[in-house]
Design goal:
alpha+beta; BirA Bifunctional Protein, domain 2; 2 domains; 8-stranded mixed beta sheet; 5-stranded mixed beta sheet; 16 strands; 38% helix; elongated
Length: 415
Amino acid sequence: MQDVLPDDREYWDAIVGLATELAQRYGFQRVDIPIIEYTDLFSRGVGIASDFFVKKEMYTIDEEDGTSITLRPEFTAGLVRAYIENGMANWTQPVKIYSIGPAFRRERPQAGRFRQHSQFNPEILGDSDPATDLEIMMLAMNLYQGLGYKDLVFQLNSTGCPACKPAYIEALTRYLSSQMDSLGEIDRERMRRNPLRVLDSKEKGMDGLLEEAPHIVDFLCDDCATHFADLRYLLDALKQPYTVNYRLVRGIDYYTKTVFELWDKAIGAQASLCGGGRYDGLAEAIGGPPTPGVGVGIGIERIVIGLKEQGIEAPPTPKPAIMVAHFGGDTKTAAVQLVYTLRKAGLGTRLAFARGHRSLKSQMREANKYDTTYTLIVGESELNQGAVTVRRMDSGDQQLVSLDDIVPWIQADNG
């Protein structure tokens, strides 16, 4: 876990600001869901064979009344629950929603992995049109492009559906069983739990072995094959680069049909920036009516790391352009009154704090430290004249301005 300090917060503000603006431009509405859900939501919805569940990566609390609750490890199951419980099925379909906030997984310590991490999650529920897959994918693409990422490409695959996936799993299992002597212990365990996860293996020697493995696209039913072809046609129509990656699978069991990742070609094999896909059976798995859905999870911390690695600086957070200096006593009272007058007028203003007397030189050093544009000096002379001395910090020029005129004067001088 980490603390987000002001310098990093500038990145966060830029990312969240652009994500929110894009989501609204695409017609998504924000939904905030609880950080804690009943454990059953994830055990049923996310799937018992999912890596993070089997490895006990969820933070779960057993309550005294026998109920079990879990800090959310991901957003999609909770958003689908909210869709069901709040009658969103009665809204105009599809429902396009998004959420931003923390998720929790007991990750193994490694660079870019945090046990508390924040995500931007757009989801489209209630429509199986391949164009909704495209919408989610392009929202992710537009976000990374807008933040300064270049050389982006989609990795794309179909994981089929309950009608066609079993035949593929049988063929894959048969192939892997014939290669059992070449599988490491971790891949043998994956094969017992969920053979599809072996396709994602990073173990030594597995690339060549998996090159010969059967491809799921050769086992797709007509519905899944048509869906996959239609999505590729739409990507081609947009001239959007993508690569069909037969080894691409996601680590959660609820995915059906489309799965995708967004890669940065400059980084190479470890280039995955985010990933998502379609989960048409999730609503039924958690006790709701059949509801198609598609979404993506985008980790904010990982974006920050990527921006820093590429030397992309975040837009600086706007800072107060004005500082008000004083000499204590009545001048401090007048300075406080002036500060709140300026803020009420929409002008960012910093007050020089001091319990006793503080030299003007010290206050000027503070103004320079915070890149202040103007320092307004309230002394006894200014107080007697109902005015304030305005010092431009870049040039050092000073002039006396009436307190009654100070707000329009600064507004006019600042453009």
